[in-house]
Amino acid sequence: MNNTSLVTLLEAMFHQSKEMILFVNNDGEIVYxxxxxxxxxxxxxxxKSQFQHICTHCQGMYAAGGRxxxxxxxxxxxxxxxxxxxxxxxxxxxxxxxxxxxxxxPENDISVFTLNPLSEQLRTQEIEHQKRLTQRIIxxxxxxxxxxxxxxxxxxxQELLNVLLExxxxxxxxxxxxxxxxxxxxxxxxxxxxxxxxxxxxELRPASLDDLGIEAALKTHFKxxxxxxxxxxxxxxxxxxxxxxxxxxTVLYRIIQEAIFNAAxxxxxxxxxxxxEEMDDGTGPHxxxxxxxxxxxxxxxxTPIGTGLGLFGMSERASSVGGTVSVDSMPGKGTRVxxxxxx
Length: 343
Hints:
- Helix content is about 45%, strand content about 25%.
- By secondary structure, it is of the alpha+beta class.
- The chain has an eight-stranded antiparallel β-sheet.
- Its cofactor is [4Fe-4S] cluster.
- Its main location: cytoplasm.
């Protein structure tokens, strides 16, 4: 193939490609863009007689944690291959693209900047993420239902059956003292059942959370934890408002509940420290929470003991109300669960 044919093909590819292709100089000025790029990118206040700067369109690159920033900008490196960037379109939307930036003419400081839309890939990833999330939620729900079913069958059902059988025998007892003794035993059994059912109810949804708020619900839960597991919860609750949004209160309660349960099951500790503080650091009011133990700990990133759904659930709950949760742990040095939720 001769050079003329190659140039013809390259020109045809440049003009007809559905990929956005831009040539940019060392100052970030767009030397030339193909028709697809010109039709897609925002041309607000664009003087056709002047160079247009790439920063007019670019909104920054994707960084860790979902941030969009301009640190380590592609304009200032010799070559940055395959990265995610956000560009403003003619419709005023900020759209993610898969980008490639390569210097092709070092002598004249000209680079080629290619962009392919990422929206379809993101939609596919979101669908897959939702599927996995739904599967994990269903798995967690079924696991919890099995546990409750087992508790009801092994605890409540068996105990009720025993009491029922004992009560059926009352009519055959002639001795008053013996009858009184049997009735007292049955009464004790029913009292234990009442406490057992009440504990299950508290685990599912404490009435104090709806009626009295997060502070009262947590204090009641901490007393229950001490009674059930023999673990002392040393709590500091520094919140000014009596009530928060019900969804925020539920998320806070469930995160703290799950973190304490994890400590009770895996950390092998006698004390767990809980701190809840309402603050405003300039970004708006939020509640900071911290649950810490000095137990066995684990190496973050390793496969967690159990299903791992507890840690996953805490993160998903916090995210649902715009909050964050992090876990800091090391073997032999305990575990710290912390984060904040805007209020």
